[in-house]
Amino acid sequence: MKKFPPRTHLNIHSDTLEQNYWNLDSIFDDGSTLYHGGKNKSPHLTWDKVKGAKSYVVKITDYEAANLIGTPFIHWVVANLETNELEFDAASRSDLHQGYNSFSSPSLMHISDRNLAKANALANATYVGPNASDTSHNYEIIVYAIKDKTLDLPKPFYWADLHQAMENKVVAWDSISVKLRHPSDNVNHLYKDLFKDRSNLKYINIISNNVDKKGFLDSQYAYSPYAPNPNLDWTHVEGANYYSLIMLDNESRHSTGGLPFIHWLVANINVNSLEANATATNKEILHGDTSASREYESKYLINNEAFMAPFIPDKFLLDGAATRYLGPNPQDAEHRYTVIIYAHENKLNLIKGFKLGSMSRALHGNVLGEGIFEFKVKKQVK
After folding, report:
1. For 69, which of 40, 209, 302, 303 is 20 to 30 Å away at the CA?
2. Domain range holding 174?
3. Mind listing the pLDDT tens digit for each residue in 229-277?
4. d(C-alpha 55, C-alpha 49), whole Å
């Protein structure tokens, strides 16, 4: 497995976003009074052409929705783009190869009937605009440049399908943050880029002695929610006093109905390493909640049920194990897991059991460096 490439500046731009804020043209009006008049049309996007790329992928994600539902919310994903531009309302095109947004998840939507679940998923194989009920959110628009002209994907596809198909095929990538201002928010509403200085962003190289040369994690660190975490070492970033870590399964299907699963959140690490089993032995580590938590903040109701965890099946929800490393245990096939480490100068104002959304808001405007490390875990043979 090849190392995931560092970020490349691709000059992602939109004519329909206003100074890095969402406007009503692209916001989803859910019938409440919060975002009345939202037209739910996909934004115009353009980016630099990449040498060696034959196609592009675009994804829009709200990581801060994890405070409400226990997982990032995918708003739009498009694959096999031959040009470096998407026109305004491109999602309405029948020829665009689009994937499912997060409303397609039968678990999230509390749909148990198979036929209804299929119909709901097909209705959500398109763009859905931002609509945050709790506070202002930062949304990530990411572009991947792909070396192949066509990725082998179903129509439509899940983000998990696309993530698997992109393995070893990303030649460049970049992202921007776009802010949705909540009408009653006077605290978190100001736009900040994720990075303190995007032009001087440092690359963090991450390694692990517990991952073999083929990229597979040693089995003692997987197949149990109580498995010890693997060791991680990374390069120091000048000016950084702290590091924060996110570990995701972007290929989750079983536990979340096709949405990413958060396996590990750690903030304010004051060294550039984590020893194996640090979750249990290092009392200085500040852990956040994984997707196995029951403690989320939703204010929505869907089908008269809470639009929140525990939408994840009970067997994946663990009392006492939610705020620690949660060992990967793919149920359907081999999965590729992603560890992201951010470097920052000052300690983030977070407490034990913090959510990914809270970490995201605290990181915005403060990140000095980033690194991405991937490893695989085989399906457990029972």
Report:
1. 40
2. 17-180
3. 999 999 999 999 999 999 999 999 877 778 899 999 999 999 999 999 9
4. 10
